Backbone:
Protein backbone atom coordinates (compact mmCIF):
# COMPACT_ATOMS: atom_id res chain seq x y z
CA UNK A 1 0.00 0.00 0.00
CA UNK A 2 1.34 3.46 -0.92
CA UNK A 3 -0.18 5.69 1.75
CA UNK A 4 1.85 8.60 3.08
CA UNK A 5 2.60 9.48 6.70
CA UNK A 6 -0.20 12.02 7.06
CA UNK A 7 1.14 13.51 10.28
CA UNK A 8 4.48 14.38 8.67
CA UNK A 9 3.12 15.85 5.43
CA UNK A 10 3.76 19.61 5.32
CA UNK A 11 1.69 20.60 2.27
CA UNK A 12 -0.26 19.15 -0.64
CA UNK A 13 2.45 19.70 -3.30
CA UNK A 14 5.10 18.32 -0.91
CA UNK A 15 2.93 15.21 -0.47
CA UNK A 16 2.59 14.83 -4.24
CA UNK A 17 6.31 15.20 -5.00
CA UNK A 18 7.16 12.64 -2.30
CA UNK A 19 4.70 10.19 -3.88
CA UNK A 20 6.01 10.91 -7.38
CA UNK A 21 9.56 10.11 -6.26
CA UNK A 22 8.24 6.91 -4.73
CA UNK A 23 6.27 5.65 -7.74
CA UNK A 24 8.42 7.08 -10.57
CA UNK A 25 7.44 5.67 -13.95
CA UNK A 26 4.29 3.89 -12.73
CA UNK A 27 1.09 5.10 -14.44
CA UNK A 28 -0.81 7.81 -12.57
CA UNK A 29 -3.24 9.89 -14.68
CA UNK A 30 -5.34 8.47 -17.51
CA UNK A 31 -7.33 10.19 -20.25
CA UNK A 32 -9.21 8.71 -23.18
CA UNK A 33 -7.98 9.68 -26.62
CA UNK A 34 -10.15 8.23 -29.36
CA UNK A 35 -10.86 4.71 -28.21
CA UNK A 36 -7.68 4.26 -26.16
CA UNK A 37 -6.82 5.23 -22.59
CA UNK A 38 -3.44 7.00 -22.44
CA UNK A 39 -1.49 7.31 -19.19
CA UNK A 40 0.85 9.87 -17.68
CA UNK A 41 3.35 8.56 -15.14
CA UNK A 42 3.99 9.98 -11.69
CA UNK A 43 7.43 11.17 -12.74
CA UNK A 44 6.20 12.89 -15.91
CA UNK A 45 3.37 14.55 -14.00
CA UNK A 46 5.84 15.82 -11.39
CA UNK A 47 8.10 17.22 -14.10
CA UNK A 48 5.20 19.08 -15.75
CA UNK A 49 4.00 20.49 -12.42
CA UNK A 50 7.48 21.80 -11.64
CA UNK A 51 7.89 23.35 -15.10
CA UNK A 52 4.44 24.93 -15.03
CA UNK A 53 5.05 26.37 -11.54
CA UNK A 54 8.33 27.90 -12.70
CA UNK A 55 6.57 29.22 -15.82
CA UNK A 56 3.91 30.87 -13.67
CA UNK A 57 6.65 32.55 -11.64
CA UNK A 58 8.36 33.72 -14.83
CA UNK A 59 5.03 35.19 -15.96
CA UNK A 60 4.78 37.25 -12.79
CA UNK A 61 2.90 35.06 -10.34
CA UNK A 62 3.85 35.91 -6.77
CA UNK A 63 3.16 34.08 -3.48
CA UNK A 64 -0.38 34.72 -2.32
CA UNK A 65 -1.76 35.55 -5.79
CA UNK A 66 -5.11 33.98 -6.61
CA UNK A 67 -5.35 32.00 -9.85
CA UNK A 68 -8.78 30.93 -11.11
CA UNK A 69 -8.82 27.44 -12.65
CA UNK A 70 -11.65 26.88 -15.13
CA UNK A 71 -11.50 23.50 -16.83
CA UNK A 72 -13.17 20.15 -17.27
CA UNK A 73 -11.68 17.21 -15.36
CA UNK A 74 -8.46 16.26 -17.13
CA UNK A 75 -4.75 15.74 -16.29
CA UNK A 76 -4.01 19.43 -16.86
CA UNK A 77 -6.47 20.30 -14.08
CA UNK A 78 -4.36 18.48 -11.49
CA UNK A 79 -1.12 19.83 -12.98
CA UNK A 80 -2.39 23.44 -12.91
CA UNK A 81 -3.80 23.06 -9.40
CA UNK A 82 -0.59 21.70 -7.89
CA UNK A 83 1.64 24.02 -9.93
CA UNK A 84 -0.31 27.01 -8.61
CA UNK A 85 0.32 25.84 -5.05
CA UNK A 86 3.96 25.01 -5.83
CA UNK A 87 4.44 28.58 -7.04
CA UNK A 88 3.14 29.82 -3.68
CA UNK A 89 -0.13 31.06 -5.18
CA UNK A 90 -3.70 30.14 -4.18
CA UNK A 91 -5.91 28.15 -6.55
CA UNK A 92 -9.52 29.26 -7.05
CA UNK A 93 -11.40 26.41 -8.78
CA UNK A 94 -14.39 27.50 -10.87
CA UNK A 95 -17.27 25.55 -12.39
CA UNK A 96 -17.31 25.16 -16.17
CA UNK A 97 -21.04 25.89 -15.96
CA UNK A 98 -20.45 29.37 -14.55
CA UNK A 99 -22.09 32.23 -16.43
CA UNK A 100 -20.34 35.47 -17.37
CA UNK A 101 -21.92 37.04 -14.27
CA UNK A 102 -20.62 34.20 -12.07
CA UNK A 103 -17.13 34.62 -13.54
CA UNK A 104 -17.19 38.37 -12.99
CA UNK A 105 -18.20 37.82 -9.37
CA UNK A 106 -15.26 35.43 -8.83
CA UNK A 107 -12.82 37.81 -10.50
CA UNK A 108 -13.94 40.77 -8.43
CA UNK A 109 -14.28 38.90 -5.15
CA UNK A 110 -11.00 36.95 -5.32
CA UNK A 111 -9.02 39.73 -7.09
CA UNK A 112 -7.47 37.01 -9.25
CA UNK A 113 -4.57 38.16 -11.44
CA UNK A 114 -4.57 35.04 -13.62
CA UNK A 115 -7.17 32.66 -15.05
CA UNK A 116 -6.29 29.24 -16.45
CA UNK A 117 -8.89 27.97 -18.93
CA UNK A 118 -9.12 24.77 -20.95
CA UNK A 119 -10.95 25.82 -24.12
CA UNK A 120 -12.06 28.68 -26.32
CA UNK A 121 -15.70 28.36 -25.21
CA UNK A 122 -14.70 28.89 -21.58
CA UNK A 123 -12.18 31.60 -22.49
CA UNK A 124 -14.88 33.62 -24.25
CA UNK A 125 -16.90 33.77 -21.03
CA UNK A 126 -13.83 34.88 -19.10
CA UNK A 127 -12.99 37.53 -21.70
CA UNK A 128 -16.45 39.11 -21.49
CA UNK A 129 -16.23 39.15 -17.69
CA UNK A 130 -12.60 40.32 -17.63
CA UNK A 131 -13.34 43.33 -19.83
CA UNK A 132 -15.57 44.63 -17.03
CA UNK A 133 -12.75 44.40 -14.47
CA UNK A 134 -10.65 47.43 -13.55
CA UNK A 135 -7.60 45.22 -13.93
CA UNK A 136 -8.23 42.39 -16.43
CA UNK A 137 -6.43 39.15 -15.53
CA UNK A 138 -3.92 37.34 -17.71
CA UNK A 139 -5.58 34.35 -19.38
CA UNK A 140 -3.62 31.11 -19.76
CA UNK A 141 -5.21 28.59 -22.14
CA UNK A 142 -4.61 24.83 -22.19
CA UNK A 143 -5.72 24.67 -25.83
CA UNK A 144 -5.13 27.11 -28.72
CA UNK A 145 -7.86 29.77 -28.72
CA UNK A 146 -7.63 30.69 -32.41
CA UNK A 147 -8.56 34.33 -31.80
CA UNK A 148 -8.23 36.62 -34.83
CA UNK A 149 -8.03 39.78 -32.72
CA UNK A 150 -6.84 40.48 -29.20
CA UNK A 151 -9.61 42.20 -27.21
CA UNK A 152 -7.10 43.98 -24.99
CA UNK A 153 -6.24 41.17 -22.56
CA UNK A 154 -2.91 39.42 -22.09
CA UNK A 155 -3.01 35.81 -23.28
CA UNK A 156 -0.57 32.96 -22.74
CA UNK A 157 -0.80 29.40 -23.95
CA UNK A 158 0.02 26.30 -21.92
CA UNK A 159 3.10 25.39 -23.97
CA UNK A 160 4.50 28.93 -23.63
CA UNK A 161 4.27 28.70 -19.84
CA UNK A 162 6.06 25.35 -19.95
CA UNK A 163 8.80 26.84 -22.16
CA UNK A 164 9.21 29.79 -19.82
CA UNK A 165 9.47 27.35 -16.92
CA UNK A 166 12.27 25.37 -18.52
CA UNK A 167 14.33 28.56 -18.85
CA UNK A 168 13.49 29.82 -15.36
CA UNK A 169 15.51 28.87 -12.24
CA UNK A 170 13.84 26.27 -10.01
CA UNK A 171 12.51 28.60 -7.35
CA UNK A 172 9.37 26.47 -6.95
CA UNK A 173 11.04 23.61 -5.09
CA UNK A 174 12.22 25.83 -2.19
CA UNK A 175 8.70 27.27 -1.90
CA UNK A 176 7.22 23.76 -1.70
CA UNK A 177 9.70 22.84 1.04
CA UNK A 178 8.90 26.02 2.96
CA UNK A 179 5.09 25.66 2.77
CA UNK A 180 3.28 24.77 5.99
CA UNK A 181 0.01 23.01 6.78
CA UNK A 182 -1.57 26.26 7.99
CA UNK A 183 -0.90 28.07 4.69
CA UNK A 184 -3.90 28.57 2.37
CA UNK A 185 -3.99 26.00 -0.44
CA UNK A 186 -7.15 27.08 -2.25
CA UNK A 187 -10.26 29.22 -2.10
CA UNK A 188 -13.28 27.14 -3.09
CA UNK A 189 -16.52 29.01 -3.60
CA UNK A 190 -19.75 27.57 -2.27
CA UNK A 191 -22.38 26.70 -4.86
CA UNK A 192 -24.66 29.54 -3.84
CA UNK A 193 -27.79 27.57 -2.96
CA UNK A 194 -28.89 30.35 -0.64
CA UNK A 195 -27.41 33.47 -2.24
CA UNK A 196 -24.04 34.82 -3.38
CA UNK A 197 -21.22 32.24 -3.28
CA UNK A 198 -18.70 32.57 -0.45
CA UNK A 199 -14.99 31.87 -0.92
CA UNK A 200 -13.93 29.18 1.56
CA UNK A 201 -10.22 29.36 2.44
CA UNK A 202 -8.88 25.83 2.94
CA UNK A 203 -5.40 25.21 4.30
CA UNK A 204 -3.12 22.40 3.21
CA UNK A 205 -3.65 20.84 6.63
CA UNK A 206 -7.45 20.91 6.30
CA UNK A 207 -7.33 18.78 3.14
CA UNK A 208 -4.57 16.53 4.53
CA UNK A 209 -6.74 15.96 7.62
CA UNK A 210 -9.56 14.83 5.33
CA UNK A 211 -7.22 12.48 3.45
CA UNK A 212 -6.04 10.93 6.72
CA UNK A 213 -9.63 10.37 7.82
CA UNK A 214 -10.59 8.81 4.47
CA UNK A 215 -7.60 6.48 4.66
CA UNK A 216 -8.56 5.34 8.13
CA UNK A 217 -12.16 4.80 7.00
CA UNK A 218 -11.30 2.69 3.94
CA UNK A 219 -8.27 0.81 5.28
CA UNK A 220 -10.52 -2.10 6.29
CA UNK A 221 -11.42 -2.85 2.66
CA UNK A 222 -7.75 -3.48 1.87
CA UNK A 223 -6.31 -0.45 0.11
CA UNK A 224 -3.72 -1.56 -2.42
CA UNK A 225 -3.51 -0.68 -6.12
CA UNK A 226 -6.62 1.48 -6.21
CA UNK A 227 -8.26 2.93 -9.31
CA UNK A 228 -10.42 6.06 -9.13
CA UNK A 229 -12.79 7.21 -11.87
CA UNK A 230 -13.17 10.99 -11.61
CA UNK A 231 -16.36 12.50 -13.02
CA UNK A 232 -17.76 14.94 -10.43
CA UNK A 233 -16.40 18.45 -11.11
CA UNK A 234 -12.99 18.97 -9.53
CA UNK A 235 -14.07 22.53 -8.78
CA UNK A 236 -16.30 21.05 -6.04
CA UNK A 237 -14.52 20.51 -2.71
CA UNK A 238 -15.85 16.93 -2.51
CA UNK A 239 -14.13 15.74 -5.69
CA UNK A 240 -11.15 18.06 -5.13
CA UNK A 241 -10.31 16.24 -1.90
CA UNK A 242 -11.81 12.76 -2.34
CA UNK A 243 -11.17 12.38 -6.08
CA UNK A 244 -7.77 14.05 -6.35
CA UNK A 245 -5.77 14.49 -3.16
CA UNK A 246 -6.90 11.32 -1.38
CA UNK A 247 -5.89 9.17 -4.41
CA UNK A 248 -2.53 10.94 -4.44
CA UNK A 249 -2.07 10.22 -0.74
CA UNK A 250 -2.50 6.46 -1.23
CA UNK A 251 -0.65 6.19 -4.54
CA UNK A 252 -3.76 5.41 -6.61
CA UNK A 253 -4.36 5.83 -10.33
CA UNK A 254 -6.92 8.39 -11.53
CA UNK A 255 -8.95 7.98 -14.72
CA UNK A 256 -10.86 11.01 -16.00
CA UNK A 257 -14.33 10.05 -17.21
CA UNK A 258 -15.47 11.37 -20.58
CA UNK A 259 -18.69 12.71 -19.02
CA UNK A 260 -21.79 11.62 -17.15
CA UNK A 261 -23.33 10.23 -20.35
CA UNK A 262 -20.36 7.91 -20.87
CA UNK A 263 -19.99 7.03 -17.18
CA UNK A 264 -21.48 3.57 -17.47
CA UNK A 265 -19.24 2.65 -20.41
CA UNK A 266 -16.18 4.15 -18.69
CA UNK A 267 -16.81 2.09 -15.54
CA UNK A 268 -16.84 -1.10 -17.56
CA UNK A 269 -13.61 -0.04 -19.32
CA UNK A 270 -11.45 1.05 -16.39
CA UNK A 271 -12.89 -1.17 -13.59
CA UNK A 272 -12.70 1.43 -10.77
CA UNK A 273 -12.27 0.28 -7.18
CA UNK A 274 -13.39 3.53 -5.48
CA UNK A 275 -15.75 6.23 -6.71
CA UNK A 276 -17.46 9.31 -5.35
CA UNK A 277 -20.96 10.38 -6.36
CA UNK A 278 -23.81 12.68 -5.35
CA UNK A 279 -27.29 11.36 -4.43
CA UNK A 280 -28.88 12.68 -7.60
CA UNK A 281 -26.69 10.35 -9.65
CA UNK A 282 -27.87 7.34 -7.61
CA UNK A 283 -31.48 8.45 -8.11
CA UNK A 284 -30.98 8.64 -11.87
CA UNK A 285 -29.19 5.28 -11.96
CA UNK A 286 -31.96 3.67 -9.91
CA UNK A 287 -34.62 5.05 -12.25
CA UNK A 288 -32.69 3.85 -15.30
CA UNK A 289 -32.25 0.35 -13.84
CA UNK A 290 -35.93 0.08 -12.91
CA UNK A 291 -37.01 1.18 -16.40
CA UNK A 292 -34.74 -1.45 -17.93
CA UNK A 293 -36.20 -4.13 -15.66
CA UNK A 294 -39.72 -3.01 -16.55
CA UNK A 295 -38.91 -3.31 -20.26
CA UNK A 296 -37.50 -6.82 -19.76
CA UNK A 297 -40.56 -8.00 -17.84
CA UNK A 298 -41.36 -11.65 -17.23
CA UNK A 299 -39.03 -13.93 -15.28
CA UNK A 300 -36.10 -11.44 -15.31
CA UNK A 301 -38.23 -8.77 -13.65
CA UNK A 302 -39.46 -11.21 -11.00
CA UNK A 303 -35.90 -12.35 -10.31
CA UNK A 304 -34.74 -8.76 -9.95
CA UNK A 305 -37.63 -7.90 -7.66
CA UNK A 306 -36.83 -10.90 -5.45
CA UNK A 307 -33.19 -9.82 -5.28
CA UNK A 308 -34.15 -6.35 -4.03
CA UNK A 309 -36.68 -7.82 -1.59
CA UNK A 310 -34.29 -10.35 -0.03
CA UNK A 311 -31.34 -7.96 -0.14
CA UNK A 312 -33.36 -5.35 1.75
CA UNK A 313 -34.47 -7.95 4.26
CA UNK A 314 -30.86 -9.09 4.74
CA UNK A 315 -29.86 -5.51 5.53
CA UNK A 316 -32.82 -4.59 7.77
CA UNK A 317 -33.34 -7.85 9.63
CA UNK A 318 -30.82 -10.57 8.68
CA UNK A 319 -31.99 -12.92 11.44
CA UNK A 320 -35.51 -12.96 9.93
CA UNK A 321 -34.32 -14.68 6.74
CA UNK A 322 -35.48 -18.28 6.60
CA UNK A 323 -33.08 -21.04 5.55
CA UNK A 324 -34.77 -21.19 2.14
CA UNK A 325 -34.45 -17.42 1.74
CA UNK A 326 -30.75 -17.54 2.66
CA UNK A 327 -30.13 -20.19 0.02
CA UNK A 328 -32.15 -18.24 -2.53
CA UNK A 329 -30.29 -15.05 -1.68
CA UNK A 330 -26.93 -16.75 -2.27
CA UNK A 331 -28.19 -17.97 -5.63
CA UNK A 332 -29.28 -14.42 -6.50
CA UNK A 333 -25.70 -13.26 -5.79
CA UNK A 334 -24.69 -15.30 -8.83
CA UNK A 335 -27.72 -14.69 -11.05
CA UNK A 336 -28.34 -10.98 -10.46
CA UNK A 337 -25.89 -9.19 -8.18
CA UNK A 338 -22.84 -10.37 -10.12
CA UNK A 339 -24.32 -8.83 -13.29
CA UNK A 340 -25.07 -5.59 -11.46
CA UNK A 341 -21.50 -5.54 -10.16
CA UNK A 342 -20.19 -5.99 -13.72
CA UNK A 343 -22.09 -2.86 -14.79
CA UNK A 344 -20.04 -0.94 -12.22
CA UNK A 345 -16.78 -2.42 -13.50
CA UNK A 346 -16.70 -5.58 -11.37
CA UNK A 347 -14.11 -4.38 -8.82
CA UNK A 348 -15.93 -1.67 -6.87
CA UNK A 349 -14.94 -1.71 -3.19
CA UNK A 350 -16.68 1.50 -2.18
CA UNK A 351 -18.93 4.11 -3.74
CA UNK A 352 -19.08 7.10 -1.44
CA UNK A 353 -22.19 9.28 -1.51
CA UNK A 354 -21.92 12.89 -0.43
CA UNK A 355 -22.86 16.45 -1.28
CA UNK A 356 -26.51 16.09 -0.19
CA UNK A 357 -28.69 13.66 1.82
CA UNK A 358 -29.14 10.22 0.27
CA UNK A 359 -32.74 9.03 0.34
CA UNK A 360 -33.02 5.88 2.47
CA UNK A 361 -34.99 4.00 -0.20
CA UNK A 362 -32.31 4.74 -2.81
CA UNK A 363 -29.53 3.62 -0.48
CA UNK A 364 -31.44 0.45 0.43
CA UNK A 365 -32.06 -0.32 -3.26
CA UNK A 366 -28.34 -0.35 -4.10
CA UNK A 367 -27.37 -2.06 -0.86
CA UNK A 368 -29.86 -4.82 -1.67
CA UNK A 369 -28.18 -5.20 -5.08
CA UNK A 370 -24.75 -5.52 -3.49
CA UNK A 371 -23.42 -2.08 -4.51
CA UNK A 372 -21.24 -0.91 -1.58
CA UNK A 373 -22.62 2.59 -0.93
CA UNK A 374 -21.13 4.55 1.98
CA UNK A 375 -23.08 7.71 2.81
CA UNK A 376 -20.99 10.54 4.19
CA UNK A 377 -21.53 14.11 5.29
CA UNK A 378 -19.66 17.36 5.02
CA UNK A 379 -19.53 20.83 3.57
CA UNK A 380 -16.99 23.00 1.79
CA UNK A 381 -16.15 24.73 5.08
CA UNK A 382 -14.89 21.37 6.42
CA UNK A 383 -12.61 20.53 3.45
CA UNK A 384 -15.28 18.91 3.04
CA UNK A 385 -15.76 15.52 4.80
CA UNK A 386 -16.93 15.42 8.41
CA UNK A 387 -18.20 11.85 8.71
CA UNK A 388 -18.90 8.69 6.73
CA UNK A 389 -20.34 5.23 7.21
CA UNK A 390 -17.54 2.66 7.60
CA UNK A 391 -17.57 -0.32 5.20
CA UNK A 392 -18.03 -2.85 8.00
CA UNK A 393 -21.04 -1.15 9.60
CA UNK A 394 -23.35 0.79 7.30
CA UNK A 395 -26.36 2.50 8.85
CA UNK A 396 -28.21 3.95 5.87
CA UNK A 397 -30.32 6.40 7.88
CA UNK A 398 -27.13 8.02 9.21
CA UNK A 399 -24.03 9.70 7.76
CA UNK A 400 -21.68 7.64 9.91
CA UNK A 401 -19.32 8.60 12.74
CA UNK A 402 -16.88 11.54 12.55
CA UNK A 403 -13.61 10.79 10.80
CA UNK A 404 -10.43 10.61 12.92
CA UNK A 405 -9.22 14.09 13.80
CA UNK A 406 -12.77 15.48 13.76
CA UNK A 407 -14.73 16.53 16.83
CA UNK A 408 -18.51 16.84 16.64
CA UNK A 409 -20.95 18.10 19.23
CA UNK A 410 -24.62 19.06 19.17
CA UNK A 411 -25.54 22.59 20.24
CA UNK A 412 -28.51 23.31 22.50
CA UNK A 413 -30.70 24.09 19.49
CA UNK A 414 -29.69 20.83 17.77
CA UNK A 415 -27.15 22.34 15.36
CA UNK A 416 -24.17 20.15 14.43
CA UNK A 417 -20.86 21.79 15.39
CA UNK A 418 -17.49 20.62 14.03
CA UNK A 419 -13.94 21.25 15.25
CA UNK A 420 -10.54 20.12 13.99
CA UNK A 421 -7.79 20.86 11.48
CA UNK A 422 -10.31 20.31 8.67
CA UNK A 423 -12.23 23.52 9.50
CA UNK A 424 -11.73 26.39 7.05
CA UNK A 425 -9.49 29.35 7.80
CA UNK A 426 -12.43 31.64 7.04
CA UNK A 427 -14.32 33.16 4.10
CA UNK A 428 -12.32 35.18 1.62
CA UNK A 429 -12.58 38.91 2.30
CA UNK A 430 -15.54 38.39 4.66
CA UNK A 431 -14.36 38.47 8.28
CA UNK A 432 -17.83 39.18 9.70
CA UNK A 433 -19.46 36.07 8.18
CA UNK A 434 -16.34 34.09 9.10
CA UNK A 435 -16.80 35.02 12.78
CA UNK A 436 -20.49 34.12 12.61
CA UNK A 437 -19.71 30.70 11.12
CA UNK A 438 -16.64 29.71 13.16
CA UNK A 439 -16.24 30.82 16.75
CA UNK A 440 -14.30 29.29 19.62
CA UNK A 441 -12.89 26.92 16.99
CA UNK A 442 -16.29 25.34 16.24
CA UNK A 443 -17.76 25.38 12.75
CA UNK A 444 -21.50 26.01 12.89
CA UNK A 445 -22.72 23.81 10.04
CA UNK A 446 -26.32 25.01 9.84
CA UNK A 447 -27.45 21.36 9.93
CA UNK A 448 -29.66 19.94 12.66
CA UNK A 449 -29.15 16.42 13.95
CA UNK A 450 -28.12 14.10 16.75
CA UNK A 451 -25.52 11.44 17.52
CA UNK A 452 -26.83 7.91 18.20
CA UNK A 453 -25.61 5.31 20.66
CA UNK A 454 -22.92 4.12 18.21
CA UNK A 455 -21.57 7.62 17.62
CA UNK A 456 -23.17 7.85 14.17
CA UNK A 457 -24.53 11.23 13.11
CA UNK A 458 -28.12 11.47 11.93
CA UNK A 459 -29.13 14.68 10.17
CA UNK A 460 -32.75 15.62 10.58
CA UNK A 461 -33.02 19.11 9.11
CA UNK A 462 -31.19 21.98 7.50
CA UNK A 463 -31.37 24.98 9.82
CA UNK A 464 -31.73 27.51 7.01
CA UNK A 465 -33.87 25.30 4.77
CA UNK A 466 -36.48 24.51 7.39
CA UNK A 467 -39.98 25.64 6.44
CA UNK A 468 -41.86 27.12 9.38
CA UNK A 469 -45.56 27.12 8.53
CA UNK A 470 -48.07 29.61 9.88
CA UNK A 471 -48.87 27.22 12.73
CA UNK A 472 -45.27 27.29 13.90
CA UNK A 473 -44.46 23.72 12.78
CA UNK A 474 -40.95 23.00 11.45
CA UNK A 475 -40.91 21.01 8.21
CA UNK A 476 -37.90 19.64 6.28
CA UNK A 477 -38.53 20.34 2.56
CA UNK A 478 -35.72 18.00 1.50
CA UNK A 479 -37.48 15.00 3.01
CA UNK A 480 -40.73 15.71 1.16
CA UNK A 481 -38.89 16.50 -2.08
CA UNK A 482 -36.93 13.26 -1.77
CA UNK A 483 -40.13 11.22 -1.49
CA UNK A 484 -41.71 13.03 -4.44
CA UNK A 485 -38.73 12.47 -6.75
CA UNK A 486 -38.66 8.76 -5.91
CA UNK A 487 -41.87 8.44 -7.91
CA UNK A 488 -41.29 7.46 -11.51
CA UNK A 489 -43.67 10.17 -12.70
CA UNK A 490 -41.72 13.03 -11.06
CA UNK A 491 -38.27 14.13 -12.19
CA UNK A 492 -37.75 17.11 -9.87
CA UNK A 493 -39.67 18.95 -7.17
CA UNK A 494 -39.44 21.94 -4.87
CA UNK A 495 -41.63 22.29 -1.79
CA UNK A 496 -42.84 25.74 -0.70
CA UNK A 497 -44.81 27.08 2.26
CA UNK A 498 -42.83 29.21 4.72
CA UNK A 499 -45.26 31.14 6.99
CA UNK A 500 -48.14 29.58 5.06
CA UNK A 501 -50.92 27.29 6.40
CA UNK A 502 -49.82 24.28 4.36
CA UNK A 503 -47.30 23.11 1.73
CA UNK A 504 -47.51 23.44 -2.03
CA UNK A 505 -45.01 22.19 -4.61
CA UNK A 506 -43.49 22.94 -7.99
CA UNK A 507 -43.15 19.72 -9.97
CA UNK A 508 -41.20 18.84 -13.11
CA UNK A 509 -42.80 15.67 -14.59
CA UNK A 510 -40.53 12.89 -15.79
CA UNK A 511 -40.36 13.20 -19.58
CA UNK A 512 -40.28 9.45 -20.35
CA UNK A 513 -43.12 8.65 -17.96
CA UNK A 514 -45.19 11.53 -19.36
CA UNK A 515 -44.57 10.36 -22.93
CA UNK A 516 -45.73 6.85 -22.04
CA UNK A 517 -48.91 8.25 -20.43
CA UNK A 518 -49.56 10.45 -23.49
CA UNK A 519 -49.18 7.49 -25.86
CA UNK A 520 -51.63 5.42 -23.82
CA UNK A 521 -54.19 8.23 -23.76
CA UNK A 522 -53.83 9.57 -27.29
CA UNK A 523 -52.33 12.89 -26.21
CA UNK A 524 -49.44 14.92 -27.66
CA UNK A 525 -46.23 13.60 -26.10
CA UNK A 526 -44.74 16.97 -25.20
CA UNK A 527 -44.41 18.29 -21.66
CA UNK A 528 -45.13 21.83 -22.85
CA UNK A 529 -48.66 20.66 -23.73
CA UNK A 530 -49.19 18.03 -21.05
CA UNK A 531 -48.58 20.30 -18.06
CA UNK A 532 -51.79 22.12 -19.05
CA UNK A 533 -53.81 18.97 -19.77
CA UNK A 534 -56.57 18.35 -17.18
CA UNK A 535 -56.37 14.54 -17.44
CA UNK A 536 -52.60 14.56 -17.08
CA UNK A 537 -52.97 16.85 -14.07
CA UNK A 538 -55.30 14.30 -12.45
CA UNK A 539 -52.72 11.60 -13.22
CA UNK A 540 -50.00 13.64 -11.49
CA UNK A 541 -52.35 14.44 -8.61
CA UNK A 542 -52.73 10.69 -8.05
CA UNK A 543 -48.94 10.47 -7.84
CA UNK A 544 -48.77 13.28 -5.29
CA UNK A 545 -51.58 11.64 -3.31
CA UNK A 546 -49.57 8.42 -3.25
CA UNK A 547 -46.76 10.31 -1.54
CA UNK A 548 -49.14 12.19 0.74
CA UNK A 549 -50.34 8.89 2.19
CA UNK A 550 -46.84 8.38 3.64
CA UNK A 551 -46.55 11.91 5.09
CA UNK A 552 -47.69 13.51 8.32
CA UNK A 553 -50.54 16.05 8.05
CA UNK A 554 -48.21 19.07 8.16
CA UNK A 555 -45.98 17.58 5.41
CA UNK A 556 -48.76 16.83 2.91
CA UNK A 557 -48.76 18.67 -0.42
CA UNK A 558 -52.16 20.33 -0.74
CA UNK A 559 -51.70 21.89 -4.17
CA UNK A 560 -49.06 21.82 -6.86
CA UNK A 561 -47.84 23.59 -9.95
CA UNK A 562 -46.24 21.82 -12.94
CA UNK A 563 -43.56 23.13 -15.26
CA UNK A 564 -41.93 21.64 -18.33
CA UNK A 565 -38.68 23.51 -17.57
CA UNK A 566 -36.26 21.21 -15.74
CA UNK A 567 -34.11 22.63 -12.94
CA UNK A 568 -30.67 22.77 -14.54
CA UNK A 569 -27.27 24.36 -14.21
CA UNK A 570 -27.88 26.34 -17.40
CA UNK A 571 -30.97 28.09 -16.03
CA UNK A 572 -29.22 28.48 -12.65
CA UNK A 573 -31.98 26.60 -10.79
CA UNK A 574 -29.57 23.77 -10.00
CA UNK A 575 -25.97 23.67 -8.76
CA UNK A 576 -23.32 21.64 -10.63
CA UNK A 577 -23.80 18.92 -7.97
CA UNK A 578 -27.54 18.89 -8.78
CA UNK A 579 -28.83 20.55 -5.60
CA UNK A 580 -31.77 22.87 -6.23
CA UNK A 581 -31.22 26.60 -5.71
CA UNK A 582 -34.37 27.59 -3.85
CA UNK A 583 -33.88 31.33 -4.04
CA UNK A 584 -33.53 31.20 -7.85
CA UNK A 585 -36.57 28.94 -8.29
CA UNK A 586 -38.66 31.08 -5.95
CA UNK A 587 -37.61 34.22 -7.81
CA UNK A 588 -38.87 32.59 -11.02
CA UNK A 589 -42.01 30.84 -9.75
CA UNK A 590 -42.77 32.52 -6.41
CA UNK A 591 -45.76 34.50 -7.68
CA UNK A 592 -47.34 31.40 -9.25
CA UNK A 593 -46.72 29.37 -6.09
CA UNK A 594 -48.32 32.09 -3.98
CA UNK A 595 -51.33 32.02 -6.31
CA UNK A 596 -51.85 28.34 -5.38
CA UNK A 597 -53.03 29.46 -1.95
CA UNK A 598 -55.92 31.22 -3.68
CA UNK A 599 -56.50 28.89 -6.67
CA UNK A 600 -58.18 25.62 -5.65
CA UNK A 601 -58.20 24.14 -9.14
CA UNK A 602 -54.77 22.58 -8.56
CA UNK A 603 -55.71 20.93 -5.28
CA UNK A 604 -54.73 17.26 -4.96
Residues:
Amino acid sequence: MGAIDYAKATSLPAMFFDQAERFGDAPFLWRKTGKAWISLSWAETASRINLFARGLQATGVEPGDRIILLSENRPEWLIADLATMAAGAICVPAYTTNTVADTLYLLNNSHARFVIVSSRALAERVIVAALSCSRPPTIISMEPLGLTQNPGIEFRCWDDIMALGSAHPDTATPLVRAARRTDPACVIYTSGTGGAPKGVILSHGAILCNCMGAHHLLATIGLAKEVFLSFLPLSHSYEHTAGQFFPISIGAQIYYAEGVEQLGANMMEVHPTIMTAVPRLYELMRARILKGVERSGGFKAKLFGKTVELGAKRYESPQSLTLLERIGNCLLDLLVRRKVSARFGGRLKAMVSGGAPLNFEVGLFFTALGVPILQGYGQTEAAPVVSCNPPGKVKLHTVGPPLPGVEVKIADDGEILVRGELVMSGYWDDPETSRETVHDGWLHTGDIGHVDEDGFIQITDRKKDIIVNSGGDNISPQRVEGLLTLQGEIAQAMVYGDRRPHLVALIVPDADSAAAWASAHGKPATLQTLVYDANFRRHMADTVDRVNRTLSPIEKIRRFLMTDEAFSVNNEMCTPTLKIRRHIIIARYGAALNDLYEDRRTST
In short: The chain has a mean pLDDT of 93.
